[in-house]
Design goal:
The protein has eleven helices and eight strands. By secondary structure, the protein is α/β, with parallel strands linked by helices. The radius of gyration is 22 Å and the shape is globular. The chain binds 1,4-dihydronicotinamide adenine dinucleotide. GO terms for molecular function: oxidoreductase activity.
């Protein structure tokens, strides 16, 4: 059965080119009304213009779809609020939000400025916060919402020269983890995409042959799945070149140490048990850690039966 979005309204940020453009076009092709948001401008966040977003809207309309362009800077909450209002005024709802807009200010931590660090956090992390916040009440009121945050292998695993970008990209995972809990009773599902694609962001960094395989169109199906009616929730989906995977944050089972060994030396002595992958799992919520640890302590202290 084909997955469609008829009657659904989607906002895709940074949709003037690259991944966002591909997400917007495919959503529209499958029936969604799409807000093509893009500030325009350069990879480092400087400049701006509406041509890119308008061109994508024209492309969607030429194919028989419905779309409107929006030039809001996702880092500016006032502009984002106005974008959401404009969407609701025109189409009555917002079902899907794909937080995709992004910039780069790569520099080693030693050489980078705090100004660049803040700007990257502002666009990626606060941009995602702003758009999610502006859509949140709309989604709660209609008891339906699908949000995707765009993370990156740089955030999940690290990448030289990308402390600012990696921090922002891991930040959106933290946002997702709690939004999932707060949105559950309103059928708002929040997932993350970790893409790898040949766009202006990666041009020159990836060998030509790989670049040709890593088309945005191979990533987009992951986003479409993550914003579908039957979407999963709290999933970090990785996608590129037609390959798909899931990343998880896991915690080892760990070990309880008796009071005399609750020392740095005790930890060093029991490191293998503490860090052992055996029994490691993905906690559903933060409080599980507290429950697990106190349970282990009570067992260790003989306060409960093993
Ligand atoms: P891109 O540079 O081709 O597209 C990003 C778009 O976002 C641009 O059109 C830009 O004008 C827009 N934008 C930038 N700042 C904005 C703002 N403040 N408000 C509204 N729009 C703004 O980049 P690409 O590769 O398509 O990246 C899309 C997303 O995927 C980004 O979040 C990026 O960090 C992420 N990503 C991309 C990877 C890749 O391999 N291309 C790898 C991992 C993550």
């Amino acid at each position: 059965m084909s997955i469609r979005y008829d009657g659904k309204v989607a906002i895709v940020t940074g949709a003037g080119q690259g991944l966002g453009r591909s997400h917007a076009i495919e959503l529209a092709k499958r029936g969604a009304k799409v807000v093509v948001n893009d500030l325009g401008g350069n990879l480092d966040g400087s400049g701006g213009g509406s041509e890119a977003a308008l061109a994508v809207v024209a492309e969607i309309e030429a194919a028989g779809g419905e779309a409107m362009a929006n030039g809001a800077n996702v880092a500016d909450y006032g502009q984002v609020e106005a974008m959401v209002k404009q969407t609701v005024d025109k189409w009555g709802r917002v079902d899907i939000l794909v937080n995709n807009a992004g910039i780069l200010r790569d520099k080693s931590f030693a050489k980078g400025s705090l100004e660049d660090f803040r700007l990257v956090l502002d666009v990626h992390l606060m941009g995602t916060v702003n758009c999610s916040k502006a859509c949140w009440d709309v989604m709660r009121d209609q008891a339906y919402g699908r949000i995707v945050v765009t993370t990156s292998s740089s955030g999940l695993y690290g990448n030289f020269g990308q402390t600012n970008y990696g921090s922002a990209k891991m930040g959106v995972i933290g946002l997702m983890n709690t939004l999932v809990q707060e949105g559950a009773k309103y059928d708002i599902r929040v997932n993350a995409l970790a893409p790898t694609a040949g766009t202006r962001m990666t041009e020159g960094l990836i060998p030509e042959e790989a670049f040709a395989l890593l088309t945005p169109e191979t990533v987009t199906p992951a986003v479409l799945y993550l914003v579908s009616e039957d979407a999963p929730n709290k999933t970090i989906m990785c996608a590129g070149a037609g390959a798909y995977a899931v990343a998880r944050i896991v915690e080892t089972d760990g070990a309880w140490l008796p009071p005399g060994e609750q020392t740095p030396e005790g930890i060093a002595a029991h490191w293998d048990a503490i860090a052992s992958v055996e029994g490691e799992r993905q906690p559903e919520a933060g409080f599980e850690q507290t429950v697990k640890f106190t349970g282990k302590a009570m067992e260790g202290l003989g306060l409960v039966d093993k």
